[in-house]
Write a structure and sequence with these properties.
This protein is mostly helical. The protein has one domain. About 60% of the residues lie in helices and about 5% in strands. The chain contains one helix and two strands, in the order E-E-H. A two-stranded antiparallel ribbon has the order 1-2. Strand 1 and strand 2 form a beta hairpin. The protein is rod-shaped and about 95 Å long. The chain binds zinc ion. Zinc ion binds next to loops.
Amino acid sequence: MALITCPECDRQVSDRAGACPQCGAPVHLPAKRARSNRLALVAVSAALVVMVGVLLTVSLGNQWAENDAVAERHAETLKTLRGQ
Ligand SMILES: [Zn+2]
């Protein structure tokens, strides 16, 4: 927790308070903190995109591997039916 200066009455206010307890003026987070929050949001979004991409790749890969296995089984069955 950090203290910031109220823009209205110049008193020290907790940065977690939504408004100054003295005068009721809305208290905004310092710009630096807001920027780091935005950076964190971008990082989380990027991580989510990467995770979704990996999940899609893995599930599609599994599906293709399964299709290959089915095709192989069908080929084996055909060979057997043809007496080869
Ligand atoms: Zn104030």
